[in-house]
Amino acid sequence: MKRLAILILASALYAQPLVALELPKPPSGFAWQEIPELKAAFLRPDGWFFKQENSKGTMAYFITKEDISKGGEFSTGLTVNVFHFKKDSAVEHGQALIEKMAANNHVQSASHTVGPFQEFSCQLKNTDATGTIEMYALTVANPKTNTLYLFMFESPEHDWEASWKQGKAIIDSLAIDDEY
Questions:
Q1: What range does the domain containing 65 cover?
Q2: d(Cα 165, Cα 74) in Å, to the nearest integer?
């Protein structure tokens, strides 16, 4: 998978927060959504919304086309969940999660090593009473810190082609510090 900038590694700046790093200029139509507590930044399309929640030890972040602060739901957007493991392996959890999604939806999964991170991904469809949702799921495991990031971009099937252009730009431009 070709990446614009999967990581902004701070080899010389390990102890400095991400806000001190210089992010590349975002593509036209996007801005960087910085998340200092993660030492990370993700592209947010212009006019889209950002929300964060913490629940039961899991940090959740949302970059969505719809404002979820009003209704709590969205049709198109990215969900990021961050898990810190004390004993279990983040890499094994990330791989198992994607393999389970892929098996349940009869699709192929993929894996890549990008710098210190291990990635697992699949694209799938989910049909329920409201219609068919297309999703791209990506786990990024940091074996050094035993942290797992779960990225899920989703959109209704009828909007997928246009929405995925923005989703792919977000996924291909993840900025994650390898020290977190």
A1: 47-158
A2: 18
